[in-house]
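Exercise: predict the fold of this chain.
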Amino acid sequence: MPKTISELDLTNFLHEPSKQSLSDGFGLTFIKGTERGSATAYFRKQCQGHPIKLKLGQYPAISLATLVSQRDDMSQSIAQGITPKAARDRALTLHTHKTFRDVALLCFERRVKPHHKRPQNVLSILENHILPKIGHLPIEHIGVYHVDDIMAHVKGESYDDKVLREIKRPIKFAMQYGFPVSGVAIITLTSKDYVLTQKRGGRVIGTDEIKPFLTDIINANQGRENVLILYVLITLLIRKNELIWAKKAEFDFKNQLWHLPAKRTYQGKTVFTSKTGVSIAIPLPDVVVSWLEELFSMHPNSEFVIPARKKSASPVVSESTFNKAFAPIFSKYHTNMHGTRHTGSMLMQYLGISEYVRELCLNHRHGGDYSHYLQLEPRKIAHEKLAKYIADIINKILLEKTKESL
């Protein structure tokens, strides 16, 4: 019976000695070879009354999403009366000697658009920073020196690592489809080659720095609302956008839970999608409930926890607001808003919370378990320990400020 194959299915298959093949029933089949930890992917189906078998490549060198996309392309060709081999040969002929722009946009349509949560962000990177410089060049003429030139112009920007990724993606796509490529070395480039800053994680603030950090936050005079938001982000280990688009109806203060949805809509449009693509119930310690109740009281007529502070097309506050408010402090500690999330995880580790529970508190799901209440009690204990630790530090800071003012 046909079934969708997941990454977990493939991991189990590769580690199961008695099983030599795995099929999804839709044409995608994986067969083990001599190399451990990998399998060859094939497309197998009936076409015009004849069985066909085409090799797609090695998994996991080629991602499951890529292989599924190739399977779907070939299935579509069969539905149109074209054999997959003829379709592939035609594609190779069509795109030989085409430009980087041609390949990048083809890659965007086939690899990014169907699977990426925010494909417009990828297209923006391509159109603003990459295609104006190398879009007109034949794909086979693109070399590392072209990448060097582009990276020299964007180095230090918040998106520089994303630019490098979107240069490499079409090159890898071209190689998978057999297009002529000379800059094979491009796909080996990493952020270390250009000394790019790790943007997403930021720097984790150590236990010896957390009190000075919170002291600077409190003394920054950036408003009580901004300070409360930062407290909530650190204590609940959540992403900034998860709180920015939060609606008051998601919070159950009686049971001390925040039901974070898989996605949110506004005026019929999807405005938020969780990174994991699933919902989760987040435990709310007493002190966090008090912070959230204070935030609610600041905007009693809004359905959102943090509505826009000035007239705007968006109903919620801008993502950059908090970065700008605490920019000098983040710079001092070499971190960012996202870094506070991992700082919270590090503090949990310091408080004796296991790695498994910390990962769940970060909403990192492993093993295919996407239960809304997954390990709720252990997560509740972890958040309560962290909330008490943070609240005790805040109270000490405020007490010291009071004594100084006397």
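Check your answer against the key: Residues 370 and 393 are 34 Å apart (CA to CA).
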